[in-house]
Amino acid sequence: MYDLVIRNGLIVTHENVSAGNIAIQNGKIAAITSAETEIEGKEVIDAQGKYVFPGGIDTHAHLNDPGYNWREDYVHGTQAAAAGGITTFIDMPMQNEPALTTAALFNRKEELLKDKGIVDYAFWGGLIDNNVKELVGLYEAGAVGYKAFIGPCSPDYTSVTSGIMRHAMREVVPRDIVFGFHCEDYSIIKYEENKAIQENRRTIRDFLDARPVSAEMISVENVICLAKETGARVHICHVSHPEVAQLIREAKAEGVKISGETCSHYLVFNEDDFLNNGPIFKCAPPLRRQEDQEALWEYVLDGTLSCVASDHSPCTLEEKAVDSGDIWKSWGGLSGIQSTFQVMFDAAVNQRKLSPKLLAQVLSYGPAQAFNLFPRKGVLAPGYDADIVILDPEKEWEITPESLFYVNKISAFVGLKGKGSIEKTLVRGKVVFDDGKITAAPGTGKLLKRQDCGPRQL
Ligand SMILES: [Zn+2]
């Protein structure tokens, strides 16, 4: 008899949707059978009429803990992840105090957070202007990627030059680890920002004009060029525009080891939402035009953008400086780790009539592939962790401040309505979210290290 059986659900993988049962033993998926097969469990969940997805993997989240836990912390942030069907997230190294740029800081962060999370998490290590010598240590400590900024970042985190990027790539290329880049050309953005401020131009349109698509494209071209030369594996974070995605498509065709990530906000919002609703929608790269938002979907559908992340980047309401009339004072970043799954389900399955397979692809399989989390995460198959989301496709939802588990209950997604509600979330076979409530204690979530996963299969 198995520990738990999820019976009669519509099991969704990146390849197909079929009715069946999932048997769970010791936190792992033990068997997947047809709906007709009789299997016994000590506990049984009836998933009749529900979709059963692999747990979501958010490749890009800023939980701000340790360091800035008045913006977000691991207790609230991982509860929000659980409510949002995210069973693993990869936490960014900046907006930590200090930023995670050495193995010692990796170990410190692991220790500080070990009793706080309720879903699993991995750590990005930081690549900044002076820590190339730390990269091998970060790899050995268990980082699953290195994050670098080509564009401007916060004061606690320095941007890198092409010289540093190239050196870093050459240094660690024999190891199977990915470099993730925030791609926006530093000099273009700083030039335009400074010019606007000098001329006292402080509107949302001024901010949009200071972050042109060309800045994103120039950065991505540089990364591709260096990846080609060095053979390093690279990941382009938060692609906002179809022309940027096109560069990734072409590089993939040439055999460059590159993966592309976009975010739910670039797929469901555009610059009109920002212009109409104000700084709550400020993020970087910025929201683009409506036609760009539409065209970006094509690159999600063809697999060029194989990850849809949240770029959960929380802040206080004061930091958004909503009423200041000065967009330069406003925090750049959106909170979305709780909303990404449901918003993507509604946008893809209900509005665009796409198969739910797409969600299993961009929220689970694609992220696990990009960060090589096989054979632990990203797939519903025997031997994998039983990270599972049960979604009721008929249940309607509305995102309200009260529904958010964040420390700061503000989000661009507040006010959105849709259909397809997350009913249960399981992490390694344990129900951590059930019918609107958190059902697991802090500490249930575990740190996933690079070496907990297998050698790269693809
Ligand atoms: Zn980010």
Give a quick rundown of the structure:
With 458 residues, this protein is an alpha/beta fold. The chain has a domain of 311 residues: Alpha-Beta Barrel (TIM Barrel), CATH 3.20.20.
Can you tell me about this structure?
The chain is of the alpha/beta class and 458 residues long. The protein has a domain at 60-370: TIM Barrel, CATH 3.20.20.140. The protein contains 14 helices and 17 strands. It has helices at 74-83, 103-113, 135-141, 162-172, 186-198, 204-210, 213-230, 242-253, 264-268, 271-277, 290-301, 317-320, 340-351, 357-370; strands spanning 2-12, 17-25, 28-34, 41-46, 51-54, 56-61, 86-91, 120-126, 145-149, 178-182, 233-236, 258-263, 305-309, 388-398, 417-427, 430-434, 437-438. Strands 1, 2, 3, 4, 5, 14, 15, 16 and 17 form a 9-stranded mixed sheet that branches. It has an 8-stranded parallel sheet with strand order 6-7-8-9-10-11-12-13. Strand 6, helix 1 and strand 7 form a beta-alpha-beta unit. Helix 2 (103-113) packs parallel to helix 3, helix 4 packs parallel to helix 7 (213-230) and helix 8 (242-253) runs parallel beside helix 11 (290-301). The protein is globular, with a radius of gyration of 21 Å. It binds zinc ion. Residues 60, 62, 92, 311, 313 line the site of zinc ion (ZN).
